[in-house]
Amino acid sequence: MDVMEVLSTRRTFRAFTKQPVPEDVVADILEAARTANCGANRQSLRYAVARSKEVVDSLCELTKWAAAIPDGAGTPALDQRPTLYIVLLQDTTVGGYSDIDVGIAVASMTTAAWAKGVGSCIIGTLHREKTAELLKLPENLLVHTGIAFGYPAHKSTVVPLKDGKKNYWRDENGDYFVPKYSLEEIVKYY
Ligand SMILES: Cc1cc2nc3c(=O)[nH]c(=O)nc-3n(C[C@H](O)[C@H](O)[C@H](O)COP(=O)(O)O)c2cc1C
Q1: How far apart are CA 144 and CA 151, in angstroms?
Q2: How far apart are CA 170 and CA 74, in angstroms?
Q3: Is 112 in the pocket of ligand 1 (CB under 6 A)?
Q4: Mean pLDDT over residues 27-38, rounded?
Q5: Domain covering 3-154, topology
Q6: Distance, CA 190 to ligand 1 centroid (Å)?
């Protein structure tokens, strides 16, 4: 895939095969995080990498999946959980907090993964306190965002957004459809 294909097909996935994410892809994801742009080169983010089934499963229990899908149907089945879960941590001893730094790190990591066929779900709704407890984090490391990774067990397609309805949906096969505005609707040229 060229860069534009990687970016335009990098959807959210919430059900995964059992195939583990290979070491070299984990290394790519972390290298993308390590070298990501950040304000004033502050590098205030730290990364908790869960690869054991036990810890990944525990993190999944602390995660809210697919708020737009009714009846919890977007929550991965027990045998379709992610195989890798990375939690981005904010080191409060480093000054100059920036959500933009987090966004760039997340986008870089998920793009590096997808370039190798590994799908992801960015997790903003996680139980931060219990996650910190589970990971035995020192006080200076705050849980910011999670990212679940794995080889996708479903498809996800971008479709035109109609009548202002932004909610994604899932069909009977578990495949997702994600409405997005057209460029004409969101871009103004000067
Ligand atoms: C900041 C952020 C937080 C998110 N939090 C969650 C979450 O807690 N649970 C979840 O299932 N998906 C979460 N997502 C995934 C979004 O629902 C998804 O990106 C959106 O529906 C658009 O789908 P797409 O990523 O395929 O374009 C999050 C995405 C972002 C960028």
Answers
A1: 24
A2: 8
A3: no
A4: 98
A5: NADH Oxidase (3.40.109)
A6: 32
What is the DSSP annotation of 26-73? HHHHHHHHHT---GGG---EEEEEE-SHHHHHHHHHTB---TTSGGGT
Q: Look up the pTM and report it.
A: 0.98
Ranges of each domain in the chain:
3-154
| Whether 122 contacts 83, CB under 8 Å | no
Please name the residue whose Cα sits nearest to atom 21 of ligand 1: 168
Nearest alpha carbon, ligand 1 atom 28: 122
Residue 136 is classified by DSSP as T
Q: What is the pLDDT of residues 69-111, one digit of tens each?
A: 999 999 999 999 999 999 999 999 998 889 999 999 999 999 9
What confidence tier does 146 reach under pLDDT thresholds 50, 70, 90? very high
**Spatial distance between the Cα atoms of 178 and 144, rounded to a whole number of angstroms:** 25
Give the per-residue pLDDT at 97: 84
Closest CA to 173 of 158, 159, 156, 154: 154
Q: Measured from the CA of 63, which atom of ligand 1 is nearest?
A: 8
